[in-house]
Design goal:
Blueprint (H helix, E strand, L loop, with lengths): L1 E5 L6 H10 L3 E6 L2 H10 L2 E4 L5 H9 L3 E4 L9 H17 L7 E7 L25 H12 L3 E7 L1 E3 L7 H11 L2 E4 L5 E6 H14 L5 E3 L3 E5 H12 L3 E4 L4 H5 L3 H4 L8 H7 L8 H7 L9
Parallel strand pairs: 1-2, 1-4, 2-3, 4-5, 5-6, 6-10, 7-9, 8-12
Antiparallel strand pairs: 9-11
Helix pairs in contact: 1-7, 3-4, 4-5, 6-8, 8-12
């Protein structure tokens, strides 16, 4: 298939490019920069110049493809609500180019959208349209496109990592370095799920090839790593102390990250593993945190 891929030069998308090409697919990768265009061409992908804010560029890219995978997202979490709304508009633009066809549209969301509440693992079968997390906008847009006849499926991501980036953990590293201490809230037993970036990339390909409209998948290798264990690993890497803070101190200490700092967000991928025969093989989050180079990590 010829696949239009947004976020094609990003942390996850660049690995999806490699995964798709290695499996015999063609890739039309979107980029806004000349450097990105060169990287895509070197990888063996075709180049589509565009950006998330340019909805016409998204429609043009989708119109040229047999399928669309949407991995692009503006990860400026200080403007999380606005960026989730931007993603909603992008998904609607991509979907509008696919109405009246059976061409797949794979969108990206977060595992929190499948929250079962009360500390229970998030499930693929659950989506609460009234979820307070602004990322629900992505799945609401997907549902709107499904209702319009578009073949939509959803890949939900946890903290995606290697030894360079680790999702929301990366800005934590920068914060802990700046403050000279690694912290967790209370006993630090709240959990974050995780997956290695190469396992996540393989999952996107498997979802594409399965092509089940309306399905939701969890790219989860580890159901939940405690905030305390994450803080300890970062503290050791930065050579800074680790301490607990109270819930009342979260806003002052974490800033915008405070909305996530004490959340318990375990997530299951049992159904995903079963239906896709997907078996994560990459190292765990703590292993990557222990092996990374902290000399420049978390500075961006």
């Amino acid at each position: 298939m010829r696949i239009f891929l947004t976020g094609a030069t990003g942390f996850i998308g660049s690995r999806v490019v490699t995964e798709l090409l290695a499996s015999g697919h063609q890739v039309l990768g979107m980029t806004r920069s000349e450097a990105g265009a060169r990287a895509l061409a070197t990888a063996g992908a075709d180049v589509h110049r565009g950006q998330l804010e340019d909805l016409d560029s998204l429609r043009r890219g989708a119109a040229q493809a047999d399928a669309v995978i949407h991995t692009a997202f503006d990860h400026d979490f200080a403007n999380f609500v606005a960026n989730c709304e931007k993603d909603r508009q992008a998904i609607k633009a991509l979907g509008s180019a696919l109405i009246g066809s059976s061409r797949p549209l794979l969108i990206t969301s977060g595992t929190g959208m499948g929250s079962a509440g009360h500390g229970r693992p998030a499930l693929e079968s659950i989506f609460n349209p009234d979820h307070p997390n602004p990322r629900s906008a992505s799945e609401l847009a997907g549902a709107e496109m499904s209702a319009a006849g578009v073949n939509v499926s959803v890949v939900r991501l946890p903290q995606v990592h290697d030894t360079v980036k680790q999702g929301l953990v990366s800005p934590l590293i920068g914060m802990f370095r700046a403050k000279g201490v690694a912290v967790h809230v209370g006993d630090g037993l709240n959990r974050w799920p995780a997956v290695h970036v190469l396992d996540a990339a393989r999952l996107y390909r498997l979802v594409l090839e399965r092509n089940e409209p309306g399905a939701r998948y969890h790219a989860v290798a580890e159901e939940g790593i405690s905030a305390r264990d994450i803080a300890k690993a970062i503290g050791a890497g930065l050579n800074v102390p680790v301490k607990s803070i109270t819930p009342d101190e979260v806003a002052d200490h974490f800033g915008w990250l405070g909305m996530f700092a004490d959340m318990d967000m375990p997530a299951s991928s049992a159904w995903t593993r079963q239906v896709l025969d997907w078996h994560p093989m990459g190292p765990g989050l703590i292993a990557d945190l222990e092996r990374m180079d902290y000399s420049g990590a978390g500075n961006t």
